[in-house]
Design a protein that fits this description.
Layout: E1 4-9, H1 16-25, E2 27-28, E3 33-34, H2 48-51, H3 53-56, E4 62-68, H4 76-88, E5 93-102, E6 105-110, H5 115-127, H6 137-143, H7 150-159, E7 171-173, H8 181-194, E8 200-204, E9 206-212, E10 219-226
């Protein structure tokens, strides 16, 4: 099957946030290694592997441009060069982050509006769209299983993802969907305690290109491109 690429935010490898979040998910997207999660008090009765199964295959990340197949005539090397060139022209910025509920999911989220993050997202969506092949009928049908407004459906067709621009909400996912409200509240309390040292001001200083060799494979990081490099 055809490989897919994505432009994501990922913390630097070896940082406390990256190491702890990757261990929580059970996967390191820089190395491709499975990781062992340390036991967390209060979650003993839960199947944490199942709880983190959905985000595990993507690695710890925040979506800037959703996964896409390369357009005809475009190459991986050209994509990497374009992302590197764009990153070199951007400046780092700082925003506080913390684990929070996002519907039924739990994720690190921004704790205040960030024009810099919105601008970064818009750059990634627009500037790299020339590298994106149009979605297949199967991918369109899969995305349309979730309720979409007419505007979101139009963005899905035009940009390959419905939740862009004014619908964009930056987040770094920590769990799959948790339907039970009491369980979700309990897990969030534990994660807030577990990630207490990583909560607060966070420096966003680069973007990463992720690659999935086929739809059954996990996403791995090809490279992280620093801002202002």
């Amino acid at each position: 099957m055809t490989a897919r690429y994505a432009i994501y935010y990922a913390p630097r490898p070896g940082t406390r946030l990256w190491d702890k979040a990757s261990a929580w998910l059970g996967f390191d997207a820089y190395t491709g290694a499975a990781l062992t999660r340390r036991p967390l008090p209060g979650l003993d009765a839960l199947d944490l592997d199942a709880l983190t199964a959905d985000p595990r295959g993507y690695g710890f990340h925040g979506t800037l441009k959703a996964p896409f197949e390369l357009a005809a005539g475009r190459s991986e090397a050209e994509l990497m060069a374009a992302v590197g060139e764009a990153a070199a022209g951007l400046l780092p910025f700082e925003v506080p982050i913390a684990p929070a509920a996002l519907g039924r999911f739990l994720a690190f989220q921004l704790q205040r509006p960030s024009p810099e993050m919105q601008a970064l997202h818009a750059v990634c969506v627009r500037d790299f769209d020339a590298f994106r092949a149009p979605l297949s009928d199967a991918d369109l049908a899969r995305r349309r299983k979730a309720p979409l407004t007419p505007e979101q459906d139009a963005r899905l067709v035009e940009w390959g993802y419905p939740h862009v621009f004014e619908d964009f909400r930056f987040h770094m996912t920590l769990t799959g969907s948790i339907r039970d409200d009491a369980v979700r509240t309990r897990v969030l309390a534990v994660l807030r305690d577990h990630f207490a040292e990583e909560t607060g001001a966070h420096l966003f200083d680069g973007v990463a290109v992720f690659k999935q060799d086929d739809r059954q494979a996990p996403f791995k990081i090809l490279d992280r491109l620093d801002f202002g490099a």
